[in-house]
Fold Ferredoxin.
Amino acid sequence: MHIDIDKDVCIGAGQCALTAPDVFTQDDDGYSALLPGHEDGGGSPLVREAARACPVSAITVSETVS
């Protein structure tokens, strides 16, 4: 899976970090960021729910093709 955070759209609501704290965090400016080593979601079942929880739809989750 591939996770993309549109930094131009993110408003720093933090819903992603609350929903999937094992994958998302907030950077020093308060915007959404992926935790190091979790660029692929780390297998967390909550990644898609975190994307849906974003109030401005700044997070997209897509399947990677191997």
Q: What stands out?
A: The two ends are 10 Å apart (CA to CA). Residues 2-62 form a domain with the Alpha-Beta Plaits fold (CATH 3.30.70.20). The chain has a mean pLDDT of 92. Residues 47-53 form the longest helix (7 residues).
